[in-house]
Write a structure and sequence with these properties.
By secondary structure, the chain is of the alpha+beta class. 35% of the residues lie in helices and 12% in strands. It folds into 3 domains: 70 residues, no CATH class; 41 residues, no CATH class; 42 residues. The N and C termini lie far apart (79 Å).
């Protein structure tokens, strides 16, 4: 992401990031592409206040050029030799091996040290669902191509609609509901007797 992808104008409320390009590795070279994996991958993500504040502090420490990368790797991320202190794009596999995995090992108990790179993304999805976000909001936030993709991955986390329907009907009719009557036709009538 570039500095131009951050909008803190309305910070702390309303701060947002534009997710609009990808970084791929081809024959050992990192290449930025404006084409995203899916149409839903290109999105604007709103930031919570605590994260907007952290990002504002970080922005004060990087170049003001709109094309400046938000996060860089020392020495170009292992892709090229650069001048001392000149950072290049963060290379995913190197970041995972050098930063993410050691941080997991240092901060989590042994039974939780198998955490993967995408696990924080899954945590975000489950927290959004738990807070009441709809399928469509979770889809947009994660950049899924369709609500089906979101439901295939996280559908089991959404509260059961059955219980909510029963609660809604109870709230509507509750104590005022008429008592069952003896002459009501049952839903599953007994089989007719042979004559």
């Amino acid at each position: 992401m570039r500095r131009a992808d951050v909008d803190l104008a309305a910070a702390p409320k309303g701060a947002r990031l534009v997710v609009g390009r990808t970084l791929t590795s081809e024959s050992g070279h990192l290449i930025f592409r404006n084409a995203m994996k899916t149409a839903g991958s290109r999105r604007v993500v709103s930031l919570p206040v605590f994260l907007a504040n952290m990002l504002a502090t970080h922005l004060s420490q990087i170049p003001t050029d709109p094309a400046a990368l938000l996060f860089t790797a020392p020495g170009g991320g292992g892709t090229s030799r650069r001048a001392a202190g000149d950072g290049g794009p963060v290379r995913h596999e190197l970041f995972c091996r050098r930063v993410f995995k050691p941080a997991v090992v240092a901060s989590l108990p042994p039974d939780k040290q198998n955490r993967r790179w995408h696990d924080p993304r899954h945590t975000c999805a489950s927290q959004l669902i738990h807070s009441g976000a709809s399928v469509l909001l979770v889809q947009k936030r994660l950049g899924h191509s369709s609500a089906t993709t979101t439901l295939d991955s996280y559908g089991w986390l959404f509260p059961s609609a059955e219980a909510a329907l029963a609660d809604a009907l109870d709230a509507t009719y509750g104590a005022d509901a008429p008592a069952p009557q003896a002459n009501v036709i049952p839903l599953d009538p007994p089989a007719a007797e042979a004559v």
